[in-house]
Specification:
138 residues; alpha/beta; Rossmann fold; six-stranded mixed β-sheet; 4 helices; globular
Amino acid sequence: MAGQVRYYIDQSLMGVWHEWGRARDDITVVGELEGTVPGDKDEEWIPVVAAAGLIVIGRDKRIRTRPAEVALLRSHALRYIWLGGKQDAPTATYVERLEVHWPSIEQLRLHRPDGPWWFSLTASGLKERSIPEVDRQR
């Protein structure tokens, strides 16, 4: 790749990768990033992606809601942009949303280099979401 890879499209958005991300030199995906393979569980890919300093673009909201995933997100300082919405949308909708809001995503990357953080990206733009504290007594 000619450019510097800065983003990782999660397996939950493979259609977005095929329609849009693959043509970009700043985005990678599972299987293309060394240390990741299709079907990786969160505990396998999160440390690899975070260590590479990449921002995840995905659709998997459980990373912010399940204690084990929250612990991974926090311990690896993961930066995650969730393509939000109550229901799944067509790939073209997600691609359009990314294209329209890409300047804001780039500004977020530049101004928030350290994680962990979680933003949702809806038709109206980026919005920071809270990350629950991890219950350390479990």
